């Protein structure tokens, strides 16, 4: 996996060969090839590069679960650093994690201008434990190293040069430049080039710096342990001799390596890639379905969602026709979209894509686009009308996409002459920022339409997940029982503060009630009204809380009747200084309202602890996830987990709801659902899904075997 050649007569060239990213497999022969180069008297210096334009993507993450043998990365890098001939890293593509650590063990680093470097181990629940946490602060100073190691961000070659990580940046052939450089430094003393022998650059008030960074990291980590261990490791670099620092790095890594969080984060890494390999129940798949090229798109309806989608498309390099029928709204949208494009461009240091967007009041302007995204108000009659107009206005073959969070994609498709061209593209607000996109296929959507929407989503930088058509698709369908349980907990004695605190301690950025205040209580109220669940009046007792044969909490409706829509009205589950304010404060009115409500309904408040909040809200959500898998709406648990981690704030270090269920143990989840179902028989979403029961009965297979197990279980039905 490492090839050795001699070039320019006296330079040993070691090429890492382990496609696709030249990950450092432990069995790799770098040590062996290094020994060859060092023992060859004709070799004066050595260059290490990677094949196919990528230096090295780091340690092989797939190997983390297995028993690893052979020289450790630390030993290998140490051997390189102690070599008595100069070793130069020729960095193209990526030098990440163990890849950058290997480069830091080299005496010099030459990078291509388009390469990117970083220590992203923290995002896998780890720390740079091949000496990276000890060498980087010695090379670039404590503050910069802390920033890179605790965030895991990748830096450009230009920034790496500025920080002092690399010695030279080239626009030309990197290996040639490195070989030339290696020849020029042959014979020079290597002592000043061995980073591990340097002290960390002096830093005034080190304690205050670490305290400040630790506080910041704890706040943003939301329960993740790796960022904290990263700070501790850098602190060791700043305060201890290298050998002791390495020992501290090893201890910290040992704790992280076997933690559930590292497993969860590594699962997320692979799950994000797995969702790109989508498949539909019809048998259509990513690798046999060719996407259509999309150069020109249109967005219909320029409310909040339409504006965000327009910005996302334009920033991806597409020409966009943005349509809004009312002149005033069109002008307002134009101003807002231009502002968003300008701010985005400023952040990314590029020119704003203002001229990529053409504004029109006329739907006929979409005549020659390749794809349309309809983003009008969430009303089936209005969307149907728009779809009919689009079918008449667009050139044959134009893909028609609807941005809906709840409506039936198949029903809309049936209103067009070409239902195979219709898919849902469910964006999340703000659409140019949020990473998630649900691509919703109906029974008649063609594989090509799905492939095109998935590819467009990927180009926009979204985690795009293909899902089947059902009420709420995947994300919102699972959210419903989660929210309902939270309402029931309030009826039984909890407060919004208690529920939110439990969920935020678990790792959600916002608890369910703060989130509801942010998105607006009126949104759910409108949906419940549409479903015929909202009854005006003040009926009391148990029967008033049973609707359509199941337990129902009218608490949200009652708040809406009071005009409490959340942040936008300055009152909701919390109070705010003024409408639009974001700082939620506990509201005594709400507490006395809850007391009066319980009294009116004959409910006696009891003490509810965090564990009950988590079990009832999370297990109800997870249970719906099992229904979704059973129904074939999501092809596998990874699809659900990516949706929850990228769009719903599920803490990444818990891997997503299905991974979490797997980690807690399916039997335990089943037992707790059964327990709560006995206590609340009128709550159908606490009734364990038959798939969960069948998986437990078949011995609770690990998550990577669920898909196979589900296929087997389905074939037995
Ligand atoms: C201690 C720990 C140490 C010392 C470590 O080094 S931990 C690993 C640190 N490295 C990383 O976190 C880098 C992870 N990889 C990436 O960020 C990206 O893959 C990339 C920037 C290197 C390339 O990106 P891109 O071109 O978009 O390609 P993909 O991301 O789709 O990846 C292609 C396939 O390669 C697999 N892959 C990538 N990195 C690794 C790795 N380090 N170990 C094992 N496999 C890796 C990835 O899963 C893709 O596989 P398929 O999905 O195609 O099967």
Automatic annotation (TrEMBL):
<keyword id="KW-0560">Oxidoreductase</keyword>
<dbReference type="GO" id="GO:0006635">
    <property type="term" value="P:fatty acid beta-oxidation"/>
</dbReference>
<comment type="similarity">
    <text>In the C-terminal section; belongs to the 3-hydroxyacyl-CoA dehydrogenase family.</text>
</comment>
<dbReference type="InterPro" id="IPR018376">
    <property type="entry name" value="Enoyl-CoA_hyd/isom_CS"/>
</dbReference>
<dbReference type="Pfam" id="PF00378">
    <property type="entry name" value="ECH_1"/>
</dbReference>
<dbReference type="GO" id="GO:0070403">
    <property type="term" value="F:NAD+ binding"/>
</dbReference>
<comment type="subunit">
    <text>Monomer.</text>
</comment>
<dbReference type="InterPro" id="IPR036291">
    <property type="entry name" value="NAD(P)-bd_dom_sf"/>
</dbReference>
<dbReference type="InterPro" id="IPR006180">
    <property type="entry name" value="3-OHacyl-CoA_DH_CS"/>
</dbReference>
<keyword id="KW-0520">NAD</keyword>
<keyword id="KW-0413">Isomerase</keyword>
<keyword id="KW-0576">Peroxisome</keyword>
<feature type="domain" description="3-hydroxyacyl-CoA dehydrogenase C-terminal">
    <location>
        <begin position="613"/>
        <end position="699"/>
    </location>
</feature>
<feature type="domain" description="3-hydroxyacyl-CoA dehydrogenase C-terminal">
    <location>
        <begin position="472"/>
        <end position="576"/>
    </location>
</feature>
<comment type="pathway">
    <text>Lipid metabolism; fatty acid beta-oxidation.</text>
</comment>
<dbReference type="InterPro" id="IPR008927">
    <property type="entry name" value="6-PGluconate_DH-like_C_sf"/>
</dbReference>
<dbReference type="Pfam" id="PF02737">
    <property type="entry name" value="3HCDH_N"/>
</dbReference>
<dbReference type="InterPro" id="IPR029045">
    <property type="entry name" value="ClpP/crotonase-like_dom_sf"/>
</dbReference>
<dbReference type="GO" id="GO:0004300">
    <property type="term" value="F:enoyl-CoA hydratase activity"/>
</dbReference>
<dbReference type="GO" id="GO:0004165">
    <property type="term" value="F:delta(3)-delta(2)-enoyl-CoA isomerase activity"/>
</dbReference>
<dbReference type="GO" id="GO:0005777">
    <property type="term" value="C:peroxisome"/>
</dbReference>
<keyword id="KW-0443">Lipid metabolism</keyword>
<feature type="domain" description="3-hydroxyacyl-CoA dehydrogenase NAD binding">
    <location>
        <begin position="296"/>
        <end position="469"/>
    </location>
</feature>
<dbReference type="InterPro" id="IPR006108">
    <property type="entry name" value="3HC_DH_C"/>
</dbReference>
<dbReference type="Pfam" id="PF00725">
    <property type="entry name" value="3HCDH"/>
</dbReference>
<dbReference type="GO" id="GO:0003857">
    <property type="term" value="F:(3S)-3-hydroxyacyl-CoA dehydrogenase (NAD+) activity"/>
</dbReference>
<keyword id="KW-0511">Multifunctional enzyme</keyword>
<dbReference type="InterPro" id="IPR001753">
    <property type="entry name" value="Enoyl-CoA_hydra/iso"/>
</dbReference>
<keyword id="KW-0456">Lyase</keyword>
<keyword id="KW-0276">Fatty acid metabolism</keyword>
<comment type="similarity">
    <text>Belongs to the enoyl-CoA hydratase/isomerase family.</text>
</comment>
<dbReference type="InterPro" id="IPR006176">
    <property type="entry name" value="3-OHacyl-CoA_DH_NAD-bd"/>
</dbReference>
<protein>
    <recommendedName>
        <fullName>Peroxisomal bifunctional enzyme</fullName>
        <ecNumber>1.1.1.35</ecNumber>
        <ecNumber>4.2.1.17</ecNumber>
        <ecNumber>5.3.3.8</ecNumber>
    </recommendedName>
</protein>
